[in-house]
Amino acid sequence: MSDKDSKIAPRVNHKNRKYTDVPCAILFLAAIGLFFGIGFAFVGSKNVDLLETLSTFEYKMNDALREDAEACCAELDQDGRDLIIEHSCMALQKNPSMFGGLLGIKAIYCLQAFCFVTFVSNSAEVMEVAKQSGVTTTDWDTGNTVMGATTCVLQNASWVGSARSILMFCWLWSIMFYAQARLGVIASVIGSWHFHPEDMPTMLSAVSNVFTKSLGTVSFSALLLAIIERIKKSLKFRWYHHCGPQFAVTVPFHCLAIVILWCLETCMKMLTKFTLILHIFTGDNFFGSAKKCWGLLTRHFENAFVTEVTSRAVLTLGAYVFSIALSFSAWAWIDTEFGWHSLSTASDEGGSLIRFFGWFFMMLFNLWYPTLGIFFMIMIDMILTRWGVGGQEYWVAPFAAIFVGVIAMLFFTYMAGVILDTIDVCFVCWAVDKDNNVDLSESEFNALVMELPDVKREPNLSPNTGLNSSLLTIDQMAQQQASAPPIAQGYPVQMENKV
To answer: Dihedrals φ, ψ of 395, to 5°?
Structure first.
């Protein structure tokens, strides 16, 4: 391998890209086809009414419905956390056209989510008649044996369970794909704005590259995240698995496995996301980008670990609080418009306080798990519509308020993911600039990053760095150009020790 082939310029290759990881792209398209094939099979095989068979149907919702699988970049202190979030918002403010593509991806996700809920609901109505033998009893005094009558019962068709499991894994893969596609669009736009603002891709071009030439790499990274989520689900602690004298051995080993998995999960998610960002920058396949990603992180971050616990917690909590506030605002507005008093606890009725806290705890649960909450609300709405439950003044307002809060939570969570993805891209851009000795002395973002505990002030370049290294270096033409602008424009920051 020549020196020229092993080195790349710090720019986003949004033109003349090649198709990468094509087999995985074909596999993902096949999974999408399987998703809709199984779903429409459920719809076509529906032969009973769900509301009439709820007593015989046990549905176990898979934790894969939780759109909570994102990891980002930076373990921040209390002060630096807010400032870096602010700088990522400034980068988004400079590129408002990007939101058109992001909302388009979200619209496709919502359409598939609607299909998923429809398919799962219909799968509960695919029944078959099974013969159930009666109980045989013997009268020992007379010696007579009485044969119980054979009856017929409705039960789920034998193929429904396996088909539903496949459907849910395809849905989990799709969730991860949409999250990675969002990251790909952000990396293309923000990276171009940072490295070469005069040559930025259009919003349509960025989305098109993600869904065409980068489809294989995006879907492969999403598959890795989906497998991690599925393994984590299988290792979820269940107390009834450890009943008996063996618990003294099984419980410690299970807890150890959970800790090890958490470490692997954190590492894999971080590497997968940063690898995808470098793929968008370079156009390399997944494993080629992963090699460069590992070298980049180990040179600039201690142990190659950068986590997002603090930033993610702040944004998630903020989205949750704002969604609760919107829910109560909608509740109060509906009560005022229709002259109801469902929000008031000052009623003479003894159950008003109990009813209020019942709706309140339901609101807290549904807003924390918004996707699962939508499914529950659809089921409740089907029951209320069928049986025509009265007393609308007690349940319509809180029910509508919870629905408003769930939609708000989905929107705020999505925007939080956009901000966290932007922070990821900003860190990679910073690391690439450091590799290329770009002057960052007047960059506010550089000043904030250098205060983080896991950041190396000087790259760890080993003596073996040579032709086969993954060092990102600038070419001769780029050396003659002006230094790239900082990730977030701002006032110069004076530092005692400039890097």
So the answer is: -120, -20
Is residue 21 domain-resident?
yes
Q: How many domains does the chain fold into?
A: 1
Q: Which residues of 252-268 are buried (b: 16+ CB within 10 A; e: fewer)?
A: eebeeeeeeeeeebbee
Nearest to 369 by CA among 310, 417, 413, 415: 413
Helix (H, G, I), strand (E, B) or coil at 138: strand
Specify the residue for token string 């009268």. 139
Does the pLDDT of residue 414 top 70, yes or no? Answer: yes
Residues 6 or more apart whose Cβ sits within 8 Å of residue 222: 28, 173, 176, 177, 179, 180
Model pLDDT, residue 376: 80
Q: What range does the domain containing 61 cover? A: 11-127+155-314+414-429
Q: Please give the backbone phi and psi of residue 158, each rounded to the nearest 5 degrees, phi first.
A: -60, -30
Q: Give the span between the Cα atoms of 288 and 270, in whole angstroms.
A: 16
pLDDT in tens, 314-352: 778 888 899 999 988 988 888 888 888 777 766 555 667
Against a cut of 0.90, is the pTM above it? no
Distances (CA, A) of 276 to 4, 102, 447: 23, 17, 26
